[in-house]
Amino acid sequence: MAVSAKAIKTRIKSVSNTKKITKAMEMVSAAKMRKAVQAALDTREYATTAWDLLINLSKTEKEGMPLLEVRQVKRLLVVLITSNRGLCGSFNSNIIKKTAAQLKDPRNLSMQRARNGHIEPNENLEVDVIGIGRKGADFCKKHGYNLIASFNTISDKPVLEDVMVASQMIIGNYIEKKYDKVVVSYTDYRSAVAQEAKIRQVLPISEFDLEKTITELGRDEDLQDRTLSKDKQEQLNEYLFEPGKKKVLETILPRLVEMQIYQSLLESSASEHSARMLAMKNAGDSANDMIKELNLTYNKTRQAAITQEIAEIAGGAAALS
Amino acid sequence: MIKFSVITPEKKVYENEVFQVSIPTTTGEITVLPGHIPMVSVLQAGEMRIKDKDGEHPYAVSAGFLEVRANNELVILADRAERADTIDLVRAEESRKRAEEEMKKAKAGQDVDYARLQALIDKEMNRIRVGNKYRKLK
Lengths: 321, 138
Prior knowledge:
By secondary structure, chain A is α/β, with parallel strands linked by helices. Chain A contains eight helices and eight strands, in the order H-E-H-H-E-E-E-H-E-H-E-E-H-H-E-H. Chain A is elongated and about 115 Å long.
């Protein structure tokens, strides 16, 4: 009898307590996930339509539109979207790992793709980070990346206003030429069990990157639809702008950038809750297995103790007679 | 017939074939009929009227933009759009009051986004106006 029955009993109790907690968290995340996923899917419609428009608009001449202007990258801004809370499996570590790998060698990330080849980044490239969600900000502080702002008050159910401050800061800084390129790293929601860490260019608005994102977004039947409509659009790309091209673009472009950031946040939020639900489910399952095993050991120990006691009594009785 | 859809960040509000749509834009109200050339324009908070085979439907829309595509497609991307008869007037009134109060508070302090608050007030005023108009008709 290696372990005392009492010790095992205590252990079983503590494991089942943990199980109760993970079970509760799983259920909470499941409910939150449903909402978050719905929100992400509902916004996808808007976002894809907006991107369609954005692609068409970005093909127009880039003169005088600061948000369309492609320039050599001296300063890069990375917006890192993570969760505020932990206990969500590998959700945060995946996105952080991916971003960190890129941050170690930011030259690739700061390449500007243009119609006529690439524009290499500047020699002394600087990288700043905006952290949305506490975990990402913590990571940056710990590893000495230049964190210029951190937003960690965003709720479980993000609304457009939540990202307004961040997006306005990003757009403002870009227009002032403080940054020459802005990328968002976020987790794309594919399904309840599959999420993918992604890095996507937000500014300058570039048709190359946008087309890539759309083909990624419209995975299934959407895809054929979209390529079809793109052909259609290419025939007639001359738009009438009312009241004026500059005015319209000035209103629309920032709005679409905000939308893109918002969409990334929603995808992240949906992914976070799915990841947490899965992690909690796994934890609950392991707790179950553990309890089963511990129960078996407990019963064996108990039985062994009884057997031994009988043996002792029998031995004692035999000694008396 | 125009293939018409109204999309907000929350959901697709309307999708159907329509005869004509009157839309409030920053340069005044425009009416889009079939065969319109491709156009992009900016929406203003106001009343949008859709004419389809079931008759005319009034909607309250707020900021956003519209895109007329080739092949008779019209897409409206609005921050918010709702049918006039589903507007909750009481709640609209409440949020207008809230926005106005915030505006008053903001006047005292500095560095507040007036434009955004004003837009919010306009939006709620518009909802109330459109909502009221069609409530009376019934």
